[in-house]
Amino acid sequence: MSAPAPAPPHPYRWAMLAGVCFVYFSFGATTAAIAPLVGRITEELALTHTQMGSVLGAWQLAFIGAAIPCGKLIDRIGVRRGLAVGALVIALSGVLRGLATDYVSLLLAVAVFGIGGPFVSVGVPKVIGQWFTGRERGLAMGLTMVGNSFGLIGALSLTSGVGLAVTGGDWRTLLMAYGGIALLAALVWTVIGGRRAARAAEAAAGAQAGHGTGGVRALLALPSVRTVLMIAVGAFLFGHSLSNWLPEILRTGGMDAATAGYWASLPIAIGIGAALVFPRLAVPARRLAILAGLFLAQIATPLLILWGDGAVLACGLVLQGLVRGALSTIVLLVMMELREVDPQRIGTVGGMYFTAGEIGGVLGPLSLGLLRDLIGGFTAGLIGLALLAAWQLFLLARLRSALR
To answer: Is 216-403 in CATH node 1.20.1250.20?
Structure first.
């Protein structure tokens, strides 16, 4: 007797995807909101550059500590409530930034974002895992990354010009407005996630749970999970290092500040297209092969940026954009779909992934800056990034063996 045909995908999945994209958009916009206002905030609050640097990194440190607990909590309360809580905490962070009066209050306001952010970063792939399969799952993951990228680009490009003009030059009101966007995203998600179809899907996902490994210790005992986490550390370290220091790398290579900013925006634009294409193509049968190609691109990228000029430099930045848009999403897909992982524990898995990744995200820019101060220039740091990518190829071969 033949097995029954699988149920067709529910059309409401696209509404759910739109909701998580809006939440991820607010995440990206709030992340980038302070950067264009650094000069004004530093001057008005009488901060040193070291203090402002610690403010900009405060949310990442809080994120590292909160990611696994938030992931476990999402597994308990469900993604409908989890994403709403995350967006509300991000909104609170935006409001508190506008109310900050000194270094400590601003530091704490930004750190609050690191508590709400994991609910979003972990909740988004969990929603995708519940509603999408096959090629559509990769496409949906890519679209959420596009939403996040538009939030980043919008905040970076519009804050210091249009945003300040609308608010009469008041940076406090502007930061609160970003909090308002996150609040609106929370309300929209609550409406979308509260519909009957969404509640039914979450209940069905819970009923199917229990056939895999779910605890943090049990997951860390699996060679495949440990290898993916090491790959995540390397991917975030590479991406955050190059993204944060690229304008300065180009400037020290002979460009003026305006030209360096223009060239540094090229990987962001390329990354949006890559996020739409590569995750959709990365079905399980060819996922590791695509990752191998991206790691080869990683090896070439810093070397082309270091020694290239003109068209060669542009090729390096295009490769960086391809890696930026696709690598992290595909690695997360690999971890989500490990056969040993209980689907109902994707929140815990996602928390582990982003904890490992953000450790690399904090260490990367710090290491590149430290090497620049100790040795002078970025040559050693860029060569180190190429060696890191080669090490990730070795980890990929190890992952292939573990999966077999």
So the answer is: yes
Q: Strands (DSSP E) along 164-289, which ranges? A: none
Here the contacts of 134-139 (C-beta below 8 Å, separation 24 or greater) are: 134/283, 135/280, 135/281, 135/283, 136/9, 136/280, 137/333, 138/278, 138/279, 138/280, 138/281, 138/282, 138/283, 138/329, 138/330, 138/333, 139/276, 139/279, 139/280
pLDDT in tens, the chain (404 residues): 444 444 566 778 899 999 999 999 999 999 888 878 877 888 899 888 778 777 878 888 898 888 888 888 888 888 888 999 999 999 999 999 999 999 999 999 999 999 999 999 888 888 888 888 878 888 888 899 889 888 888 887 788 778 888 888 899 999 999 999 999 999 999 999 877 777 776 666 655 554 445 577 878 888 888 899 999 999 999 988 887 788 778 888 788 766 777 788 788 888 888 888 888 888 888 888 999 999 999 999 999 998 877 889 999 999 999 998 889 889 888 887 787 776 667 778 888 888 888 888 888 888 888 888 788 788 888 999 999 999 999 999 888 877 76
Domain boundaries, given as residue ranges, for the chain: 13-207, 216-403
Measured between alpha carbons, how far is 374 from 384 in angstroms, rounded to an integer? Answer: 14
Eight-class DSSP state of 285? G
**3-class secondary structure, 28:** helix
For 118, other C-beta atoms within 10 Å of its C-beta total: 30
**Following CA atoms 23, 233, 327, 350 in sequence, which dihedral angle do they give, to the nearest 10 degrees?**
-40
CA atoms within 13 A on the CB side of 168: 1
Q: What is the 3-state secondary structure (H, E, C) of 84-131?
A: HHHHHHHHHHHHHHHHCCCHHHHHHHHHHHHHHHHHHHHHHHHHHHHH
Query: Considering the domain 13-207, what is its CATH architecture?
Result: Up-down Bundle (1.20)
Q: How many CB atoms within 10 Å of residue 54?
A: 16
Label residue 103 exposed, middle or buried (CB < 10 Å: 0-12, 13-18, 19+): middle
- The reply to whether 216-403 shares the fold of 13-207 is yes
